[in-house]
Write a structure and sequence with these properties.
single chain; alpha+beta; about 65% helix; four-stranded antiparallel sheet; 12 strands
Length: about 800
């Protein structure tokens, strides 16, 4: 309701309330029984109401007793009778629930104030007219009519912004005769009351019913007459529009079909509109017949209908077609013509569609027509369609400027295109473009009026929104069709990506790239569940460093809530992730998040979360798409993690945690390849624990395992960061060391020997272990892994034999020393 109408209603209602309240404060009644009787009959009369034509308001015959109360009762009694009748009339048998504002307006604006004015108009006029009752009643009836109907007309005029005079004459003035007739009836009743008594007023009931019946009869005739006039007007209008609609229906059906079909390859309404505008202007310039013009108009819309027979992956291919793919594409004019021949157009549309890829020099397809053999409509369509294609974005290239595109068309004049058509096009293409853009603006404006954006409410500040969506993007039906096809195509590609590899990083990168075509985002994080933590497995986009370091406990923050409840969150607040909110490394502020749980066969695998800098950026459609792919993504991640675990188990020694022989072989090959590329050097050291068998024999195999673990850990800690230590098997270990000299190897041998002794002492409490080490160097000792390991192994055994020889001499010396005293004795 406009502000002026609101102000008028408030003022009039306030005035009516003040009048009623002031009058009731001075209440007096000369005959209570008479007042109660008049009040009862007035309420009964208020139930006899009829609806005013063209309005939501009603009118009843209770105005007779309002006038009678004005004449025979005190002002407070007349006000109470009038307001009570208005209240009953407002709430009695209404179709809809009564509006409190309308009820107050009816009681105080349309009843209280008019009764007050009518009362004083009647009693003051008695003296002015020298007790001429008919004149006083006439003035009272007119005053009540004006006071009751004028405020209502003013409110309607303010709301609907119509002239007051028109509303007054059309909707209100016709009730004046009934008010005057009612005044006459009231005069007769008042006159008879003076001689017979006020009980005579009860005789008014039949009169009220008669007036009510006459109102209904009159209004019924009005409605019937109005319906007859409207029916006649509609019949005339229908007959007038019939021919136009039949003619236009054909073309609108064609256009709608063409738009829906061309949306398959993302052809837009702008393309079809521009081609049609250019083609029809050229047709006028070349003075085509009406039949040829109508055929060309339909062909501009339906010329690519045959693409229904071409697979999507060919139509939407981002690069050049192969010869085989182009042969498949060349069937679309034939298929299109076959389809349109079954439509039985009243003009030759199918020949134009079949020939719109023919060339002037006869090298086109499908029939190789040449020159004038090509229908004139097809020659026009070929040039115009090519011009628009060059000036529009395609999957395989960007649009050319219109002037440059026109130059290319001109170069093909007499070769691919009819010279007459190219001449008209070259001379007037800028003018045609102006026509196309002008019509395009009108079409966009109509589409905007037809389609409205849908909003489901404002997002909360928290991270768990109950509503599944908050904002929807406004799309026309062409965008919906095109996006549906793109969605199907992208989901197919995602399925292919997920089934092609078990390498987690590269596959998730492809998933992220495909997904962005369907659900735009600024950042993506795929968390995997490790114990009670969500750890980023894959991160891409803005704030890469911040999001890569984000570890979320299950049950806390946005992603933790999703993991605990296994429910999605749409347009959540990233700021609730504590570590993200306080991280100073953020480059952009992410304001909305879409997070969905990833459930595998064995339970929750992780959480996929998309972020955008724009608040409230995601829609329920985005959530739907994510929910389609999450099951496949979760299954893939689960398999990939299991594969990673199995792969790790296959390359890691279970006892020491060092890489095993298989991993050593792979790493050594990589290292040698690096050395060949960079002309570097590498040392391969083979180590063997001396005395390890004795520990197993004397202390048991568990003690031997503890020794191996102790030595492996110590050796790995003492190796350089870029050295590679592995367990070859048993008590043999191998270290791959880049750029290490023989002198450094000697130092490393002594160090490892001390570590071996330390491991023996810590586990067994005695110096039982030592170490033998042999080293080979690339490229001096060999160029491949097998040669280097063999040479290092030989040198290790040489060192081991030398160790045993020295150990044997020590034992012999010890025995000689132990037996010398007895021998001397």
């Amino acid at each position: 309701m406009p502000i002026r109408a609101k102000m008028f209603v408030v003022m009039t209602v306030a005035t009516g309330i003040a009048i009623l309240a002031t009058s009731c404060m001075n209440w007096h009644s000369e005959d209570v029984l008479k007042f109660v009787c008049y009040l009862s009959i007035s309420v009964l009369a208020s139930t006899m109401k009829v609806k005013l034509p063209g309005m939501d308001s009603t009118i009843s015959v209770n105005f007779l007793f309002v006038l009678l109360a004005v004449v025979e009762l005190a002002l407070p009694e007349a006000l109470v009778i009038g307001c009570a009748g208005a209240l009953v009339q407002s709430v009695w048998r209404t179709k809809d629930r009564p509006d409190p504002v309308k009820v107050l307006f009816n009681i105080f604006s349309l009843t209280s104030t008019p009764v007050f004015l009518t009362y004083w108009a009647y009693h003051l006029s008695e003296g002015a007219f020298r007790n001429s009752m008919p004149l006083s009643l006439l003035l009272a009836a007119v005053t009540y009519f004006l006071g009751n109907n004028l405020p209502l007309s003013i409110v309607i005029a303010l709301i609907e912004q119509h002239p007051l005079s028109g509303l007054w004459s059309e909707m209100q003035l016709w009730t004046l005769p009934y008010n005057l007739a009612g005044a006459a009836v009231v005069g007769l009743i008042h006159f008879s009351n003076n001689y017979i008594g006020w009980q005579n007023s009860l005789m008014i009931l039949p009169i009220m019913y008669g007036i009510h019946w006459s109102f209904q009869l009159y209004l019924g005739r009005l409605e019937e007459q109005k319906r007859r006039v409207e029916i006649e007007a509609r019949q005339v209008a229908a007959e007038k529009r019939h021919v136009e609609e039949v003619c236009a229906l054909h073309m609108r059906t064609i256009e709608g079909l063409a738009l829906a079909i061309d949306a398959k390859d993302h052809t837009t309404h702008e393309h079809l509109h521009r081609v049609r505008t250019y083609a029809m202007e050229i047709a006028k310039e070349l003075d085509l017949s009406e039949q040829d013009s109508n055929a060309l108009r339909a062909a501009t819309l339906l010329h690519d209908i045959g693409k229904l027979a071409v697979p999507d992956h060919i139509i939407n291919k981002p690069g050049r077609l192969t010869p085989e793919e182009f042969e498949k594409m060349k069937i679309h004019p034939i298929v299109g013509a076959d389809i349109l021949e079954r439509v039985a157009f009243p003009y030759p549309v199918a020949p134009i569609v079949r020939a719109h890829h023919e060339k002037w020099n006869g090298k086109g397809y499908p029939d190789g027509l040449k020159g004038e053999q090509i229908p004139i409509g097809a020659r026009i369509l070929a040039a115009v369609d090519c011009l628009d294609a060059l000036a529009s974005d395609r999957q395989y290239r960007k649009a050319l400027p219109l002037t440059e595109a026109m130059e290319k068309i001109t170069e093909e004049s007499g070769t691919s295109f009819d010279p007459r058509v190219v001449e008209v096009l070259q001379r007037r293409y800028l003018e045609f473009e102006t026509y196309a853009l002008r019509g395009l603006d009108d079409a966009r404006r109509d589409a905007l009026n037809f389609s409205q954006a849908v909003r489901q409410g404002e997002p909360g500040a928290g991270f768990a929104l109950d509503a599944p969506h908050r904002r929807e993007n406004s799309k026309d039906f062409l965008s919906s069709i095109a996006s549906a096809r793109q969605e199907a195509h992208t989901l197919f590609e995602l399925s292919q990506d997920l089934g092609s590899s078990l390498r987690l990083d590269e596959t998730l990168s492809l998933v992220a790239m495909r997904l962005q075509k369907l659900v735009p985002y600024d950042s993506i994080v795929i968390f995997t569940l490790k114990g009670d933590l969500l750890v980023p497995e894959f991160v891409s986009g803005d704030n890469f460093r911040v999001l890569s370091s984000l570890e979320v406990p299950v049950g806390t923050g946005l992603c933790g809530w999703v993991a605990r409840n296994v429910k999605p969150i749409i347009n959540g607040n990233p700021a609730v992730e504590g570590a993200y909110a306080t991280d100073p490394r953020k480059t952009t502020e992410l304001r909305s998040a879409l997070a969905v749980p990833l459930e595998g066969v064995n339970g929750l695998v992780g959480v996929l979360t998309l972020y955008q800098a724009e608040a409230d950026a995601f829609t329920s459609d985005h959530l739907r798409i994510l929910q389609v792919i999450t099951a496949k993504v979760a299954h893939f991640i689960e398999n990939a993690l299991n594969y990673r675990l199995a792969e790790s188990s296959a390359t890691i020694d279970y006892l020491t945690g060092l890489p095993n022989a298989r991993a050593l072989s792979i790493q050594l090959d990589k290292e040698l390849a690096r050395c060949k590329r960079e002309h570097g050097t590498v040392a391969v050291m083979v180590c063997d624990l001396n005395g390890f068998k004795a520990i197993n024999d004397s202390y048991g195999h568990l003690a031997g395992d503890q020794v191996l673990k102790h030595f492996a850990k110590s050796m790995q800690e003492r190796c350089r960061e870029y050295d590679y230590a592995a367990r070859m098997g048993g008590d043999e270990f191998v270290v791959i060391a880049q750029n290490m000299t023989p002198a450094s190897v000697t130092e490393r041998s002594e160090l490892f020997s001390e570590l071996a002794k330390e491991a023996g002492r810590d586990v067994c409490g005695a110096d039982l272990l030592s170490l033998s080490l042999g080293a080979a160097f690339y490229p001096e000792d060999g160029l491949d892994a097998e040669r280097l390991l063999s040479e290092a192994d030989k040198r290790m055994y040489s060192a081991k034999q030398l160790h045993h020889s020295r150990h044997g001499f020590k034992l012999m010396d010890a025995r000689k020393r132990s037996t010398a005293p007895s021998a001397a004795a």
